[in-house]
Amino acid sequence: xxxxxxxxxxxxxxxxxxxxxxxxxxxxxxxxxxxxxxxxxxxxxxxxxxxxxxxxxxxxxxxxxxxxxxxxxxxxxxxxxxxxxxxxxxxxxxxxxxxxxxxxxxxxxxxxxxxxxxxxxxxxxxxxxxxxxxxxxxxxxxxxxxxxxxxxxxxxxxxxxxxxxxxxxxxxxxxxxxxxxxxxxxxxxxxxxxxxxxxxxxxxxxxxxxxxxxxxxxxxxxxxxxxxxx
Length: 230
Description:
CATH topology: L-fuculose-1-phosphate Aldolase
Strand order of the largest sheet: 4-3-2-1-5-8-7-6
CATH superfamily: Class II aldolase/adducin N-terminal domain
Structural class: alpha+beta
Strand content: 15-25%
Order of helices and strands: HEEEEHEHEHEEHHH
Shape: globular
Number of strands: 8
Largest sheet: 8 strands, mixed
Distance between the termini: 40 Å
Helix content: 40-55%
Oligomer: single chain
């Protein structure tokens, strides 16, 4: 199958928009990457390693296979593409993966303090897993270990490094990244006043079932997307 830069144009634009929105929200900095699995193929769209995250366009999105080999595009993928490829290999349900460098939640991983479900939006995160090795995930073996640590869950925090979220699509992964950071920030701020109240399992189940709906996830996307056009 021959590929070109015009294939999957909608997904390329969504990835570019998602990264710019996360950069504006302080969740991605000059690094970080977002990918989308091409259905039925061992390939993914991902922003190039050299791309400027604050000025990303669809032209910065490249198509690579799960070994990082360029299929379409001119730039190389980020060195940590293994985060994405190994999650896709392990998780057929994952359609999009984002690796972020968030401020607040990274503070928690640096200190070894768990992020707790202290706001309603945190209910959709599920168990927040941890990857305790501080490293650039630039080898397949590390990517495999990270994917194993994530398991069947949605979110994992990388010690002193960042976070990874996996969703069925780009909007889901985006919202998970946003909700993790919002939760960490509010937990930290509330802890200055006292011990924050934590949702119990029954509350988490009920709230998650209510909030994990496509139109409500899209509402978060639309809120941030509108800021791109201001």
